[in-house]
Amino acid sequence: MEKLAIFGGEKAVANVPGELFKWPIVTPEDEAAVLEVLRRGAMSATDVTTQFEREFAAWQGSRHALAFCNGTMALQAAMYAIGLGAGDELICPSKSYWGCCVQAFNLGATVVFADIEEHSLCLDPDDLERCVGPDTRAVMVVHYLGHPADMDRIMAFAAKHGLKVIEDVSHAQGGLYKGKKLGTFGDVGAMSLMSGKSFAIGEGGMLVTDNREAYDRALAYAHYERSDAAHIVTPYLLRYQNIALGGMKGRLNQMSAAMGRVQLKYYDERAAEIRRAMNYFWDALEGVQGVRAHRVDEATGSTMAGWYAPHGFFVPEEAGGLALCTFCEALNAEGFGTRPYGNFPLHTHRFFSDFDRNHTGKPTRIAYSARDVRELDAAVKVSGAVNIFSVPWFKKYMPEAIDSYVHAVKKVLVASDELLALPVHEPDTKGCWSFFNRQ
After folding, report:
1. CA angle, corner 92, sides to 278 and 372, nearest 5?
2. Helices 71-81, 212-222: inter-axial angle, 10-degree rounding
3. Who's near 408: CB < 8 A, 6+ residues apart?
4. In whole angstroms, what is the distance from residue 84 CA to residue 106 CA?
């Protein structure tokens, strides 16, 4: 048995090629496109952005696409687009990033948190009925960590209750569910395109829809320079043209749009290589006791898109009862690079229990509600108790380099009995609010 690095042995992972993780891939073609915008001073114009939107819509398979300054703004515009407003409730999975739901408060709406499926980590269709109330208007579906949610059952539920559906595709741009693009099932799809995502254009967001009124509402909400009869056909919106209905400017800067046009040309090819690399890693660990892959069976026509922020499941009972945190400590000593638990469940943050943003004398979450939706949080169980750990996000198919990471996992699991003697450094709170920090 090899000596573990945590006990002074050699690391399993060393001399990793830099291109294995380099992202985004920026070429002279990207640079030239950005410089063209910069040199003619067209950063705040719309000609390149509208070209990007047309190309993105065609790639996505949607009638309309609308670019925003970031994904958070695109998601807020999506909420406005489907008519979310004062007193309405939005159902949202608790295990996610705050940007998929907090914007509802800006519209006077609130959030009801639903549980997640243990295998997909996405919204659990079996928990939706519990969340519905008289004021429920919409469901926010997050394709978490690139895994497609169960859109068949979610859409059937929405149809049964007359609800709108927004798809947050920020983790899964270009991903498929049974052969169809994620973001094309619901009434509106929205996503981040910031530099940490698999579809990275610097900073930006995109909204997609087949519904012209929803598109017009999103356009009128935060694209004041395009909210006129030349761009909008919905009659009642033209009464308020030339002023952003949301009171904010949400357009995408054209340097990011220019980069987006270039990235779009190569995205499918690059995402396919990421999937090849990630599947190689998990195939090599298939059947290894103690870990399970978080992925889909691509034979079903579904994919993990660009496999954003990949994670795996740790099974303590198959590793002698080893604690997840100790497993991660040992992996990190081997040079693996991991952290446990994924995102904190949102409903556990005090923001959603007692923050009074608008000085109404009530927490914002219930200030405009007919019921105290906080009482429903106690039923959310799975999202706070998932043994998951982050795994390296391989951008290139480089088997020899990836093998060293596979070896690190196997090495630690083989020696799990030795690790049981170590003190468990369990954190007070399990998870992170963002994948880009450890707070």
Report:
1. 155
2. 130
3. 11, 12, 13, 331, 334, 335, 336
4. 10
Beta partners for residue 206, in sequence order: 67, 191
Query: What's the alpha-carbon Rg for the chain, to the nearest Å?
Result: 23
Residue 399 phi/psi, 5° resolution?
-55, -45
d(CA 424, CA 429): 14
Residue with tokens 């070896």: 407
**244 with 220: CB under 8 angstroms?**
yes
What would the pLDDT profile of 273-310 be if each residue is shown by its tens digit? 999 999 999 999 999 999 999 999 999 999 999 999 99
- The residue type found at 108 is G
Under 8 Å between Cβ of 384 and 342: no
Whole-angstrom CA distances from 400 to 13, 16, 391 are 11, 10, 17
In the chain, the N- to C-terminal Cα span, in Å, equals: 36
User: 176 vs 75, 173, 285, 297, CA distance in Å?
Assistant: 20, 9, 24, 11
Residues whose CB is less than 8 angstroms from the CB of residue 147 and which lie 6 or more positions away in sequence, other chains included: 120, 121, 122, 172, 294, 295, 296, 304
Extract the tokens encoding 421. 């003697």
What CA–CA distances, in Å, run from 269 to 170, 198, 272, 306? 19, 12, 5, 10
Q: Which residues, at least 6 apart from 39, have a Cβ–Cβ distance to it below 8 Å?
A: none
Tell me the C-alpha distance between 26 and 259, whole Å.
9
- Gap between the Cα atoms of 413 and 331, Å rounded: 9
Prior bond to 24 cis, omega within 30? Answer: yes
- Categorise residue 392: left if φ over 0, alpha if ψ from -120 to 50, beta otherwise: beta
pLDDT digits over 17-63, tens only? 999 999 999 999 999 999 999 999 999 999 999 999 999 999 999 99
pTM of the model: 0.96
Domains of the chain: 5-23+268-342+385-419 (3.90.1150.10), 28-262+345-373 (3.40.640.10)
Using CA atoms, how far apart are residues 130 and 99, in angstroms rounded to an integer?
23
